[in-house]
Structures are given as C-alpha cells and as structure tokens.
Amino acid sequence: VAVDEVAATAAPGLVRVEALHMQAEAGLQLGRPREALAIARQAMEAYAAAPDRQSRSDARRYPAILAVLECGCLRQLGEPAAALASARRSVELWKELGDAAGQCQALLNLASAEYSTGDVEMWKRTGDRCSVVSGLIGVGAIQYNRGDAAAALASWEEGGRIARELRAPSQVATCLKNEAMAHERLGLPERAKSAHQEAPCLRRTIGDRHGIVTSLLSLGQLYVDGDPTEAARCFDEAVAISRAMGNSILLAEALFSAGESQRRLGRIPDARSRMEESVSLRRGAGTLQGAHLRSLAGIADSQGKADRARTLYDEATTLEAGRPD
Fold it and tell me: Exposure of 243 by Cβ count < 10 A (0-12 exposed, 13-18 middle, 19+ buried)?
C-alpha cells in the first residue's frame, strides 16, 4: 500500500503514525529500504504533528522506535555513517525515556551499525558492565546473522550471566529471547522453550507489558504443534495484555495467532471471531496482507459460508496485486 493510501485511510494522530510505522517495517522486510525510509520519516513527521500523542503512555516510544527503523533502512542503502548517527540517536532517546529494554535493543542495533563501519569494539571501551552485556548481545546478533548460531549462543549466554549478576532483568530477558532463537536454529526446541518460558516472568517484574506480549507470542509459537492448548493460553493472554495497553498493532498480531490456535483446536467460531477482529484492526491501520484474508476465508469456507469466503479470497487477490479496492 502506498504512503498516500495509508494517509488517506488512517485517521490523523497516533493511528496514522502506527499505520506508517507498520508500512515502513513491511517495506524494509520486503527489501525496499528507500521506500521504507521515506515512510519512516513521514511517520516521524506525523508523530510530531499528532494531536493525541499525550493520550497514551506508550506513545513517547515512537521517536526511538522510528530511529531504529531509520537505521535499518540506511544500513541496507549502504550509508553506514548515517545509519550510525540514527543508531546513536535511538540510544539517547531510549535513555531519555528511562526504558532499559528499549535501550538494550538500541545498543544491539548500535553494535551492528558500528560493525558496518569497522568499529565492533566500542562497547568494550566503556568499562561499564551493562554496556558489556549490550555489546555481547550485539556481537551475538552479528554472529547469528552470519550463520554461526553456536557462537551467537555463547555470546548471549555470557551476556545473560553478567546481566544476572547485575540483577538487570530486562537485559536477562533479552538474552533469553535471543538464546531461544539460537536453540531453535541448533535444533534444540526444549531448551528454546525453557528460555522463552522464563522471559515473560522477568518482563513482569519490571512491568514491561510490550515485552511480556512479544515473549508470550514467541512461547506460543513453540507450543503450536506439540501442545495447542498451551499455545492458545499464551496467545489469549497476549491478547488480553495488548488490549489493556491499547496497542492495536500488537493486539492485531496476538488476535491472529490466537485465531490460528483456536482453529487447530477445532474451535471454529472462536477462531473466526478472533481473526475477524484482527483483520478489522489491520485494515484500519493499513497493514492488512493477503495471507490474513486467506486464513479468514479458509475458516469461513469450513463453516459453509461460501459467499463470505469468496469475498475474502477476492479481496486478498486484489490486495496482493496492488490494485485499489
């Protein structure tokens, strides 16, 4: 969906900021960094002009989030110096917010950006153990992206050990999330599950609701095949927390996963209600994709609602073709 279409369909204020942010994320994931960068910068402008930006406690996170996204775009465009400046700005923004989890992730991004400029040792020069943890997280990310999951796991485990000694639950949770990712790649699903199970508990101790939701979504995915009932519990808890936060983007993601888990359990009406709400939220934010519509169409089809299914399949085809409705 083009930027002008998002701007035309999304309401002004934070809804428009969210829509543009998700469009930029999608553009970056699809390998269109120049387009994504332009959208991310529009999102920054939309945030600055949003009349309701004081109405939500989590809204102040957007400048920091968008700075991280801008860094990713610039790195893909081969502009390491500009990427490094964006990464440094994101670190300062998270510091101003007093958000340890965000700062840790920003430092990870900074480590990757500095690697691209040939300076991967910056974090060692700080002499601060929290920075050492963040550096180990960043080095692990570089190793993981190079395809060396074992080396990445070693870095993240060392970072987690130091973070536990420092009693820094946010950094421990970040290390655990990354360790789980490495365990999955190394074919160790039970270890991945163990790491994912501990992370939400740590996020709860510091009141990081966003982190709790993302941890629950990751944990739920590990249960999908072996224990669909537990997967459904994780996803429904993620739905409840996202709804309480008023975060429509997270809520849409959690609802879709919850719908899929209900479908696997044969609870088709419950699956449909969750997916319908997810699709409605995504449509309002301008982040709807054909795959979401096709999943909902499949459920409608299984209920014998052929006309509804056909409408959804047609909408998916139109959306994927990039044609206006």
Answer: middle
Angle (CA) 110 217 204, round 5°: 75
Q: What is the pLDDT of residues 244-277, one digit of tens each?
A: 998 888 899 999 999 999 999 999 999 999 999 9
Q: Which residues contact 235 (CB under 8 A, 6 or more apart)?
A: 216, 217, 220, 254, 257, 258, 261
Q: In b/e form, how buried is each residue of 99-137, taking b as 16+ CB within 10 angstroms?
A: bbbbbbbbbbbbbbbbbbeeebebbeeeeeebbbbbbbb
How many other CB atoms are there within 10 angstroms of residue 192's CB atom? 23
Express each pLDDT in 149-167 by its tens digit.
Answer: 999 999 899 889 989 998 8
pLDDT in tens, 211-239: 889 889 988 988 888 899 999 999 999 99
Global pTM reads 0.58
pLDDT at 118 over 50: no
For residues 90 and 113, the answer to whether their CB atoms sit within 8 Å is no
| Residue 181 and residue 144 in contact, taking contact as beta carbons nearer than 8 Å | yes
Q: CB of 133 within 8 A of CB of 123? A: no
Task: From residue 241, give the alpha-carbon distance in Å to each of 33, 245, 254.
Answer: 32, 6, 10
> What is the rounded CA–CA span in Å between residue 134 and residue 166?
13
Is a pLDDT exceeding 50 seen at residue 311? yes
Whole-angstrom distance, CA of residue 203 vs CA of residue 187: 26
Distance CA 5, CA 28 (A): 18
What pLDDT does residue 307 have?
92
Cβ-contact 13, 50 below 8 angstroms: yes
Cβ atoms of residues 186 and 150 within 8 Å: yes
